[in-house]
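G., the chain you wanted modeled:
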Amino acid sequence: MILRVLESIGEFGAFVGRTFAILFRSPPRLRHILDQMDRTGVGSLTIVNVCAIFTGMVLTLQTAYGLSRFGVKGFISRIVALAFLREMGPVFTALMVAGRVGSGIAAEIGSMVVTEQVDALRAMGADPVRHLVVPRVAATTIMVPVLTVIADLFGIVSGLVVAMLFAGITPHLYLTNVREAATFFGDMMGGVAKAVFFGAAIGLISCFIGLRTARGTEGVGRSTTIAMVACAYAILISDFLMTKAMLAIG
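Predicted structure as tokens:
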């Protein structure tokens, strides 16, 4: 069991190195990358924004309820903004993309493996990594940070609406506290840096698992589930490690 895990880790490491080598040496056509970016980014806007809006609303309600006991409701916006920019924006966005896009990538490539389309590519002298993996990895790496910034905006604005309606916080006070509490490089760019790593991880893990799909329809379903779970583990574990590193550096 341990040997199988170590072997899989080694194969994944080689797969990652090969993917990025192809990406920088002989990238695929821009049209293929843009097509994947559309499927990844535009297709995920609704689920990501809905998640951000209602998470921001609930977070603001809970924060207002807790801080009202101490008479410091003016700090609501500080907590909401920092929570979204540092953690909730990148993590929730990545989890939504992993569920929608990551599992889809694994199912799509897994179906191509089962129907021997990947073998046909190799027979024609084409590299499956260049044609199938690199565009998807590039798309997730680019679009997850973009979706994260949009989710941060929707989450903070939805918090503003709830703070106005239920906590009596004025927009001026709310936005002033956000500007005072959050920094561009320390908070916003830190969250974006996490999102870049999460996006790359989603694309790489999903493609790797898709290419290792076992023959048969059951193999496709199993790969879809494994990809979603593996992406979630990678996001949550790496988030802790990156947060610890950022706090140590800062």
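The chain has one domain: 28-249.

Shout if anything looks off.
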